[in-house]
Amino acid sequence: MFKTLQAESTQFTVARPYIGGSFGKKTDVIECDLDLHVVLNDFDPAEHLDEVLESFKQILARKKKILQIDEKISKHSRSLSFCFKNGIEVDLLPESNITDYDEVISLLIKYPKDLSHLYNPSFVDKQIYFMSKQDSGFDTHSLIRVAKYWYKTLYLGESFKGGSVMIETLCVASAREEVGFEKDKRSMLRAFTRVIDMITKLDSLKMALVPNKWKKDKKTGKRRPTTWKRVPEQDFSSHWNIVPDIVGTKEILERKAFVIDPTNPFQDFLEPNSTSVIQRVMEFAEITRTRLSQLVEKARIDPAHDFIATFLEPQPANLKGESSLKLPIDYLMHFAVPCRSPFCDIKILNNGILHDPKVAMSLQVLKMNLLWVVNGIAKTSASGALASTVEIGNAVKNLMQNSWQMQARDTVEYNHEAVDATLTIPYARDNGQNYAVRFSAKWN
């Protein structure tokens, strides 16, 4: 695909492609999308972004058969989104080939509101570098995956822009604190609990990480940070102005709460999000903190208690009252279905259901809930071995009873081909064979 864009792009030459997002940072969890970055020479996103997006969209539309792209290619304010035929969802982001970040910082100081959004993709390679330096003394990447796994089970009712990257930043800060303990006393559970505690205070949290140690890059001759530290909250009042490689603007630092991207001092992860969605994340964190305390106590009393299975139950506990969702009236499940593809598949048998946005949203939420439960349970059980088909089936039934307030049918009046939609959620077994949970739902 990159070679196609490079060959067919006439206005700007492609300097290099790379994979960003969770895959690029190696913090991916189940079923995340793929962020593909195309770095362009002499490209100014403030002037040419819309034009380049339209050009790339036309190129991909002409070549979609060869590139195995599904029909729909959508253009957004700074990206294209589409889906490969194998089920992988993609965001394609053009970005400027920046050779001098100090120059860009100077531009952003003058026009932070106008340019920050446009230049954000150009800071992703710095995010990748930042994450590559985070595992010294503690498995920060594993902590991030646990926290993002938790975050992805939440139904917030609206988008939390930058939420996943914010979670990564909080995990890095928590991991740095854990390194302060002796090596044999460092705890993943304590580090995760610390992240949850920070989220419970999100409306008053002031978080920024700054470089702590530096090393000279042999290729460029420039210094690059190798470790970061958290800025004490009392220091923010004296650092209202931009300091190179430090943090923030006066407008950001005067807010009641902020979580600043360590690689882009102009990006506050809280700023673009509504008070209601921030409040909702905080409420879920409070539920989780209580749940953690209870589960730790249960594990102490009963070592055989399935901590992971209970913890990974999606939140909130009941989705039936959600006004933005229209839940199915019935469902049908089969387990241990042989499956070749490692990707979740949604088959719409009644396209009419998608005309109702509440049904369409319910389908996406159902998909995410099933993904986390099936994959979370499939990989472990109380005994530490791979879970049995019965355990996976019970986990899905518990999900439907607790979150969706629906009971499994003892008898069915229709089969998988006589429903509105069917989802196939694959999981691997110890014999190397992929199996799946097949879940079908009916709305009408």
Structure, explained:
The protein is an alpha+beta fold and 444 residues long. It folds into three domains: 96 residues, Beta Polymerase, domain 2 (2-Layer Sandwich), CATH 3.30.460; 146 residues, no CATH class; 127 residues, no CATH class. It is 39% helix and 17% strand. The protein has 15 helices and 13 strands. Strand 4 and strand 5 form a beta hairpin. The longest helix has 27 residues.
SSE layout and pairings?
Layout: H1 2-8, E1 14-19, H2 21-25, E2 34-40, H3 45-62, H4 64-67, E3 74-75, E4 80-83, E5 89-96, H5 101-110, H6 112-119, H7 124-132, H8 140-152, H9 163-178, H10 188-200, E6 206-207, E7 209-216, E8 223-230, H11 250-253, E9 258-259, H12 275-301, H13 307-311, E10 330-338, E11 345-348, H14 357-378, H15 389-402, E12 421-428, E13 434-442
Parallel strand pairs: 2-5, 6-9
Antiparallel strand pairs: 1-2, 3-4, 4-5, 7-8, 10-13, 11-12, 12-13
